[in-house]
Every structure is written in C-alpha cells, then in structure tokens.
C-alpha cells in the first residue's frame, strides 16, 4: 500500500504577474494558519524571480500586518501573528554554513514555520520538513513555480495552488 504521507508530491504553478505571485504566496500563508505542523518553505530561483514577493504574500496570508521586507541584509525577519511565529531568511549573502550556525539558523527552523530564500545554497542545513518551491522567470514575464514536498498531500497542494495550478 502506498503511504501518501511519505510520498513526494509535485505541483506546477504559473503566475502571470507579480500580483499573482503574491496571491499564490497568500494562498499558502492562509493554508498554514491552520496547518499546525512545522514546515520550512525553501525558496529557490535566480535574482528577481519573485522569492521575496512570494514570501510577502505568504506572510500576509499568515496574518502578518507589519511591513514585510527582504531580509537580504538583516538575514532574518521574525513575524509574530495570532497564528504563531514565522521566520523569514535570505541566505544569499552567506558563504559558509558556519555563518548560518552563528545566527542560530537551526534553532529558528526546527519545529517552526520558516521561509528561506536561496535555500539551495545550504540544503543540508534545512530541517526535515521542507517544501521546496523553485521559481523560474519565463520569456513572457510569468513565473513558473515547481513545488516538491512530502509534508503535504496532493489535495492540499492543489487547494493551495488553486487557479494557478498547471495541469498536465
Ligand atoms: N510574474 C511575476 N512574479 C513575480 N515577480 C515579477 C513577475 N513579473 C515581474 N516581476 C518582477 O520581478 C521582481 C521580483 O523581485 P523579488 O525581489 O520578489 O525577487 P527575488 O527572487 O526575491 O530576488 P532576489 O534574489 O534578488 O532577492 C520584481 O521587480 C517584480 O515586480
Ligand atoms: Mg529576495
């Protein structure tokens, strides 16, 4: 018998505009309000592919009302909401895994909800519960996102992706 919980699920989405990319993030953040399990959203993609705008949407959907800025220089932003705390990292400027240890990365990402921009730089530093989201800019300006995880069911991913899901 196939155990759905340990299967890696894959979802493809396409967002035509920056507003759509934020809205897709919003839909994920809204879902996470009632998820009540740890999850590290590992964002991958070249410069300017929309990782920060997507993260802003996630934060809004999760109930963050404060301004959400890119943590490129701060390395980490912390957002406290009624639904819990969300940690937002950007590890672009870090070169060495020891620098991550210095900022206590694992303490902030284990058993919590986190967003990590440029997560593919340090894949071994991530917790077990990961949702990989890889963004790619298309020639027409839209963004393709590929979602991979064992932490969500296919039905949950389809619910989150909603109108942006690309079906085969
Ligand atoms: N479909 C789209 N989705 C997301 N962003 C888009 C889209 N079309 C154009 N953009 C533009 O692309 C840029 C994305 O910027 P953003 O800071 O979110 O990217 P990033 O991946 O976080 O970059 P960096 O790696 O430099 O932090 C913005 O200027 C946004 O207006
Ligand atoms: Mg960014």
From TrEMBL:
GO terms for cellular component: cytoplasm. Its main location: cytoplasm. The keyword Phosphoprotein does not apply. It is found in: Cytoplasm. The keyword Translocase does not apply. GO terms for molecular function: ATP binding; metal ion binding. It comes from the Bacteria. GO terms for biological process: tRNA threonylcarbamoyladenosine modification. Keywords: ATP-binding, Cytoplasm, Magnesium, Metal-binding, Nucleotide-binding, tRNA processing. InterPro entries: P-loop_NTPase, T6A_TsaE. Belongs to the TsaE family. This is tRNA threonylcarbamoyladenosine biosynthesis protein TsaE. It comes from Veillonella criceti.
